[in-house]
Design brief:
The chain is mostly helical. The chain folds into two domains: about 425 residues, no CATH class; about 70 residues, no CATH class. Helix content is about 75%, strand content about 0%. The protein contains 25 helices and no strands. α19 packs antiparallel against α20. Pfam families: MurJ. InterPro entries: Lipid_II_flippase_MurJ/MviN (IPR051050), MurJ (IPR004268).
Length: about 600
Amino acid sequence: MTELTGAPQGPGAPAPVAPQPPRDQGRFIARAAAVTAALTAAGALAGLVRDQTIAHLFGAGAATDAFLVSWTVPEIAATLLIEDAMALVLVPAFSLALSRRAAAGGDPLATDPVRALLAATLPRLLLALTCLAGLLVLGAPLLVEALAPGLPEHRTAVDCTRLTAVTVLTFGTAGYFSAALRAHRRFVPPAAIYTAYNLGIIATVLALHAAWGVRAAAAGVALGGTLMVLVQLPAFLREMPARREAPKDATLRTGALRTGGPATRTGTPASRTAVLSAATVLAPVALFTLGRQAQVLVERYLASSLPAGAISHLNYAQKVAQIPMVLSLMICTVTFPVVARALADGEHERARRRVERDLTLATLVVLLGAAYVFAYAPQIIELLFQRGAFTAEDTDATASVMRVYALGLLGHSLVGALVRPYFSAGKPTWYPAAVMAVGLLVTTVAGASAAGRWGVYGIAAANAAGITLTAVLLLRALGTGAPRTDAGFRTDAAADASRTGVGARRRRHTRPPLPVSVGLRGVVLTLARLLAAASVAAVAGWAAAPLCGPALPSAAVGALIVPAVFGATAFAAGVPEVSQLLSTVTRRFRHDR
């Protein structure tokens, strides 16, 4: 497969990169998104096979619940160290370093910002992650007791947790590599990591399940994390600049993780400046990420006191339901380095247009998937899991939970897409962490209140309510970060003008500092139209599902009905992206003829 890159390659590549013309950049984004989509789909498919294998061999009982509690460690590590916090901090950092390298024009007397950032952050990160993994191994009994106090298989969960603790180191390394490569516009190796991860789990489970039981799955998680690092290592070594002698008084003239302000000339070493800047930026990102992942912790804590299998039903339902969300965020993953580089270069309007388009595309994908998941949940679960130790009763329970989860998929996707503009400039902002805390509070209180009456369904509904509230608060603030001009767009000049006057000073204290703002009214209108189209498609699919017989033909027919109804309704509602897609397909068909 041909690698996609917009940056110079090779060990000595500090030469400046000419900006891509808009048309060329659009083609690059389209190709990068296509390749990322293919590899993301491959990773999701491997994840389904992984879950099928675990369900087939171990079912949805107490042993599986114990493993899933231990899986909390890699789930948090993946969210914090790969998907959110690491990327949200390091992609802007590397983008800024690349921008400053290009501005230096290959000056032999200047310290390479990319090399300085690498030397200042990677060794300390590896040391910290190694220590943290060791603490988790030692404290596994206390961690399991805190996560699931009512768990029957406590000893099994402790053993599995000690195995999965290794992922703190491997996921952190893999996340660092992914962020650096994406900033260099290398998307293939980062997109392949979950395929390697899941294949490692599957192979280990099949090889060791007879001897180790469910502990084999935990050993597979440890192996899969190592494969995540290895699949990216060659590309990372090729992209990182070769070591070269720097002037004796070399300092990082501007902190590698800072985005503005005068040059640093106080004699502070580059490493100390970068580390302090990293800590300042990382803290709010990490708290946001932990708050988001804590929803899973709340679910498992509440479900640990329910009958055996409750955690497993929640897990299988969530794993399948989140596939549309993962696919919807694919385009945001590809364009996040583009937004960060545009802000590093001072092109705020280009960043704003890209963010607005990403929100619409992410919503389109996730709502189409949510409509299908809601309409055909029983058929999907039966096809994927109902074999071996996974019974028909497990299918009914998991499908019902998955339908409740589907109600929160839009919120999950929007939170993932909306948080990127907040952190795209590499500046600290606490607003996302604050609103995520509000959403987590709603999830916790609602889940504790509903679990006793409605069991796992109440827990899933609380999750949907909390994440949807978080998405609403993030979107509202992102749409009020700067005033509109007469043309309906936000501009830097308008933003500067808004900072004068008493009312503007008051707004500056109540609104988060945003590098990017969006047209709230237009975005909300588009979201409402897509939500209406998804609702119509879900009802149509749900009504047609019983008419098509067994699970396989029913799900296959639904894969035609739901997109057709969704597309027709969205087109009738005037969603621009749907009209543009149909126009593109029509032109291509006429051209081929």
